[in-house]
Design a protein that fits this description.
Elements lengths: L8 E6 L3 H4 L8 H18 L2 E7 L37 E5 L10 H7 L4 E7 L1 H14 L3 E10 L3 H15 E4 L1 H10 L1
Parallel strand pairs: 1-2, 1-4, 2-3, 4-5, 5-6
Helix pairs in contact: 2-6, 4-5
């Protein structure tokens, strides 16, 4: 693991919200992804890193003509866009609201990161191949170095997760486990 400097590192957690955690996800259940994201957040917050929670405003997603839509929820929770309390947002953390798959377009995310001198982004979230991957591709294009926490993300189908983790993310950055990322915070 390359040494990460907490002062120039941000943890960006994607869509740990009610409308996602109720979905059938794989390879990891939502509660494990949230718990692992919280472990990473606690370690890196204590080390002095920037912590960012991203949520999608479900009601504001622009409909597009596409061959296949995202699977709709059978039962929509009353607050699908709200972050789950288990995500443990703390004072001083940032919450960014997006209205599309990726977290950079038409949000303040890049400005938050640049004003804090962030160079490295650690990523977790739901869904691996949608919100996480869309955000990661733009982050890479913007010059950020990326670290993906494989067991702190999941998707709508194990194959979707596996493809991104094995074929896309290694081209954009480094893929690590929760244990490795938590240990790296202790070495920073």
């Amino acid at each position: 693991m390359t040494q990460l400097n907490p002062k120039t590192t941000a943890l960006v957690m994607i869509d740990l919200q009610h409308g996602n955690v109720v979905r059938e996800l794989a390879p990891y259940p939502a509660d494990q992804v949230v718990a692992n994201s919280v472990r990473v957040a606690e370690a890196w917050r204590a080390a002095g890193a920037t912590i960012v929670y991203v949520r999608v405003s479900v009601g504001e997603l622009a409909p597009h003509v596409a061959d296949r839509a995202l699977p709709r929820l059978k039962v929509v929770p009353p607050n699908p866009s709200d972050l789950v309390p288990e995500a443990q947002v703390q004072p001083g953390d940032f919450v960014v609201t997006k209205r599309q798959f990726g977290a950079f377009h038409a949000t303040e995310l890049d400005q938050i990161l640049r004003r804090r001198g962030v160079k490295d982004i650690i990523m977790t979230g739901i869904a691996t191949n949608i919100g996480v991957e869309s955000t990661a591709r733009v982050a890479h294009d913007l010059g950020y170095d990326l670290v993906f926490v494989e067991d702190a993300m999941t998707s709508i189908g194990e194959g979707n997760h596996e493809f991104a983790v094995r074929n896309v993310f290694p081209l954009l950055g480094r893929v690590r486990t929760t244990e490795e990322i938590v240990a790296a915070a202790g070495q920073a």
